Amino acid sequence: MPDRLTPHEQLVREVAREVHDPRVLQALRAVPRDRFVPPELRADAYENEPLPIGSGQTISQPLIVGMMTEALALTGDERVLEIGTGSGYQAAVLAGLCREIVTLEVHDALRTRAEAVLADLGITNVRCLPATTELGASRLGPYDAIIVTAAAPAVPQSLLAQLRVGGRMVIPVGARHAQDLLLVTRTADGITTRSLGACQFVPLLGPEGFPGP
Q: Given 60, 138, 158, 195, which residue is catalytic?
């Protein structure tokens, strides 16, 4: 009789219907999502759905995490900028696929919790910083890849300026409550964009985002 799959493996196999990069799928296997959700929601951690994490924020649906990660096409030596640390789950998945991550979070409680979980899991290549009035962290750039886990009304020009030529950015763009997930590639001649499909993220607030709260 075959062994019953764990909820974690069942989730990875569900994501694998649309995400095909074996390195990304292995990164999803390596990260215990239950460590990044509130204790009262851990029974739901391996459902393919977003979950609330406090401060009006959510941990993204694992399928979206896989799609965004796959779209960055990381090879292992990149420096990545993440806008919106949230729970730290997306950064943890990325950590196994790149050299270094700089991740920014506006909510101090979420940032400190994410830092603690990442440290407890032995993930050492993620640098968690508080968000400032600047969108991004240009002083630490440029970056090979940028991932934005909050929705913007348009592709932020300040983030494009922090992206290396040849670099890729994944960002939800559109209205406050419905967006397209875009893959933006910076070229020597400008940018190219490709839609990865419809999505719904919490809004990016502040510079080049939506008016808050």
A: 60
Active site residue 55: no
Start-to-end CA distance of the chain, whole Å, equals 54
Contact between 68 and 62 under an 8 Å Cβ cutoff? The reply is: no
Sequence-distant (≥ 6) Cβ neighbours of residue 123 within 8 angstroms: 91, 92, 95
Phi, psi at 47, each rounded to 5° = -85, 145
Coil/strand/helix, residue 164: strand
Instruction: Report yes or no on whether pTM surpasses 0.70.
Output: yes
| Domains with residue ranges and CATH for the chain | 7-199 (3.40.50.150)
Closest residue by Cα to residue 200 from 166, 175, 163 = 175
Neighbours of 12 (CB within 10 A): 21
Mean pLDDT of 101-126: 97
Question: What is the token pair recorded at 109?
Answer: 């409680």
Convert the pLDDT of each residue in 130-157 to its tens digit.
999 899 999 999 999 999 999 999 999 9
